[in-house]
Amino acid sequence: MKNKKGSVLVLVTIITGAMMMLGFTCLNIASIQYQIRKSNSEVKKAFYMSENGLNYAYAQVYELICETAADSVDKTDEFLLVCPEDIEGASNFFYNNYKLNISSNVYHKVKLNSNPDVMVTDCSGLFTGGGLNVSISSKYISDSGIERTTSADIIILIPDYQKTRAGAVDFTSLLYFNKFDL
Fold it and tell me: Distance (Å, rounded) from C-alpha 94 to C-alpha 97?
């Protein structure tokens, strides 16, 4: 009978220890799950912020083609004051001025030195196949050091001179994304 008096205490101690280990294990699993969720949300945020840099570049290029088209029409109108009969020459003047202005200003217009860091990574400056291919890269670094880079090509097309002069051009149809690298 004396041997059985301490056995309940040992059994309670073993059960309490097992319950504590089970509790600590559950707490550890919950903590790991929280860290995974937090990390995943930071990775997603970094991706979306990097992608936002591409949207910024698109908006800047859109603004550039609108400004360039208006400037090219004004300069072509001045050309027509000197040569009023040379409509074909005026069209060529418009196209060349447009292409030169876009090619020389796209780097500066797109560059954003903040977070995300947006830049033109490749642009030949030559309009081939009726368009200019501009490769854009956007890199975002989160506060916790997670880095995400996205890139895409923006294709810039040349508007028709007569439609641009008449104000009948939808400038959104003159540029589009191509080759996303997410």
Answer: 5
Dump pLDDT digits (tens) for 4-49. Answer: 677 788 888 999 999 999 999 999 999 999 999 988 899 999 999 9
Structure tokens at 135: 């490769």
**Residue 3 domain flag:** no
Angle at which helices 87-110 and 7-82 pack, to 10 degrees?
Answer: 150
- Residue 90 forms part of a structural domain: yes
Q: How many domains does the chain have?
A: 1
Is the pLDDT score of 2 beyond 70? no
Single pTM value for the model: 0.80
Q: How many CA atoms lie within 13 A of 107 on its CB side?
A: 8
Buried residues in 28-65 as b, exposed as e (16+ CB within 10 A):
eeeeeeeeeeeeeebeebbbebbbebbebbbebbbebb
- DSSP secondary structure code for residue 158 in this structure: P
Which residue's structure tokens are 């101690």?
Answer: 13
